[in-house]
């Protein structure tokens, strides 16, 4: 299984019936492909829609129905439209149950950096800061390492997205949570040992007695 | 509310005006007003817009010809021209969180001095801002935002200026329609009074100063 599929499948296991979920761009978008059959969740698009559906079939797209990246989407029965003030009221006000976001770095305290590389990448934070600050549960879906460098770091040296720590990090190698505010290795990807994960992780991870493999 | 042509509407906007433009990645943007801003070569514009769309689309058209001098927005990553102009210091860009952006505009339209938001506390965003504690929780004071002109795009407008919107083209439009000295509206369809039922009016007619005639 390729790294992105591992991450998306594992994150999808976190969804609960009736959850209102906001998926960021990149790997998080793939989570929608692995919602367990029969599980009803609501996906929000922050440009003003709850109830996003799949990419429309050829010829069925509407120019006024797009996702936050401006790409055509569909709306499911029961969908709702609202303006941007309500959309971010939902986000900041704690009405979104789960947000899944990409990441550049997560540190040992659970702080996330995902919006800027000074001097290199300055696109703007869009909705990321509000999502991390306001959603009930923040899940980071990202590769464990980039160009051989661990993205789970001792301390973020990139600008933080929020002072609020994230709740769960799912990578292609591990699932990490932050009970008592400290990064803790909960699961390893299928076929990987704890030692193999630790070897490519910069941050020090707490190790519970049992660390099972992910079920996907 | 007065009906005008796109040419007349944009003729009222001086160079260096502060304009607020509805739309999200060019969806729900008054394209005809942007085309006219380009044709009339308005320059030095202070733009308040969620994003810079893409070159040739929505507010992206204003960056193609270097008509923007400053921008307040949340994301310009999908418009390389806006990025280049920012990195080359040809324009100043203030990038702020999207929830803060819309609440500052809402405050501007609702007679509030600003809003208190937890978003940005403990990040680069808090620099230079007043931090206020309420019930032991820290918030940033984000001040209200208004413009000289709001350029709004609706789906339906009736002869009285009542507006309704369609799908994700609603986005910032109803909020911006409250927050400018002069509100100029384009609509996909202009319909008789009564077609939009009172319950379905999103922006009440008295907020609209000018409605751009179709066709």
UniProtKB/TrEMBL annotation, chain A:
The record's listing under SMART domains reads: CoA_trans
A Pfam family (short name) is: CoA_trans
InterPro entries in the cross-refs: 3-oxoacid_CoA-transf_B (IPR012791), CoA_trans_fam_I (IPR004165), CoA_transf_AS (IPR004164), NagB/RpiA_transferase-like (IPR037171)
Q: Does the keyword Transferase apply?
A: yes
The UniProt record lists the keyword Transferase: yes
Q: Name the SUPFAM superfamilies for this protein.
A: NagB/RpiA/CoA transferase-like
Highest taxon above the source species: Bacteria
Q: Which UniProt keyword terms apply here?
A: Transferase
**Which GO molecular function, any one, fits this protein according to its record?**
transferase activity
Per the record, the similarity remark reads:
Belongs to the 3-oxoacid CoA-transferase subunit B family.
Alphabetized PANTHER family for the sequence: KETOACID-COENZYME A TRANSFERASE, SUCCINYL-COA:3-KETOACID COENZYME A TRANSFERASE SUBUNIT B-RELATED
Q: What is this protein called?
A: CoA transferase subunit B
From TrEMBL, chain B:
Q: What keywords tag this UniProt record? A: Transferase
MF-aspect GO terms: transferase activity
Record's Pfam families?
Answer: CoA_trans
Record carries keyword NAD = no
Note whether Transferase occurs among the keywords: yes
Q: Which InterPro entries match?
A: 3-oxoacid_CoA-transf_A, CoA_trans_fam_I, CoA_transf_BS, NagB/RpiA_transferase-like
Please state what the protein is called. CoA transferase subunit A
């Amino acid at each position: 299984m390729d790294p992105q599929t591992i991450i998306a499948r594992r994150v999808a296991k976190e969804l609960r019936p009736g959850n209102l979920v906001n998926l960021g761009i990149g790997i998080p978008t793939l989570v929608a492909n692995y919602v367990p059959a029969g599980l009803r969740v609501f996906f929000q698009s922050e440009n003003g829609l709850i109830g996003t559906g799949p990419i429309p079939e050829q010829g069925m797209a509407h120019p006024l129905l797009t996702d936050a990246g401006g790409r055509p989407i569909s709306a499911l029965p029961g969908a709702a439209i609202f303006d941007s003030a309500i959309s971010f009221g939902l986000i900041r006000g704690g009405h979104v149950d789960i947000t899944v976001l990409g990441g550049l770095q997560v540190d040992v305290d659970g702080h996330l950096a995902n919006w800027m590389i000074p001097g290199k990448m300055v696109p703007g934070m869009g909705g990321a800061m509000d999502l991390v600050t306001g959603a009930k549960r923040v899940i980071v879906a990202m590769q464990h390492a980039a160009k051989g460098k661990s993205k789970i770091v001792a301390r973020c040296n990139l600008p933080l997205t929020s002072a609020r720590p994230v709740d769960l990090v799912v990578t292609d190698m591990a699932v990490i949570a932050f009970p008592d505010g400290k990064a803790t290795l909960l699961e390893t990807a299928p076929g990987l040992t704890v030692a193999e994960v630790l070897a490519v992780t910069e941050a020090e991870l707490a190790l519970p007695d049992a660390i099972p493999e992910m079920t996907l | 509310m007065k009906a005008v042509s796109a040419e007349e509407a944009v003729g009222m906007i001086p160079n260096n005006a502060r304009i607020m433009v509805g739309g999200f990645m060019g969806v729900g943007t008054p394209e005809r007003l942007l085309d006219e801003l380009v044709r009339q070569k308005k320059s030095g514009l202070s733009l308040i817009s969620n994003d810079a769309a893409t070159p040739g689309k929505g507010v992206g058209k204003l960056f193609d010809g270097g008509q923007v001098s400053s921008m307040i927005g949340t994301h310009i990553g999908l418009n390389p021209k806006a990025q280049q102009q920012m990195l080359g210091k040809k324009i100043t860009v203030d990038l702020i969180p999207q929830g803060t952006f819309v609440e500052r505009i809402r405050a501007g339209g609702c007679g509030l001095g600003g809003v208190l938001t937890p978003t940005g506390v403990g990040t680069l965003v808090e620099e230079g801002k007043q931090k206020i504690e309420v019930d032991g929780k820290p918030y940033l004071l984000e001040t209200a935002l208004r413009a000289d002109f709001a350029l709004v795009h609706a789906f339906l407008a009736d002869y009285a200026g009542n507006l309704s919107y369609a799908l994700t083209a609603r986005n910032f439009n109803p909020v911006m329609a409250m927050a400018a000295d002069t509100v100029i509206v384009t609509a996909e369809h202009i319909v008789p009074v009564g077609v939009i039922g009172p319950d379905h009016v999103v922006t009440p007619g008295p907020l609209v100063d000018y409605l751009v005639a179709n066709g």
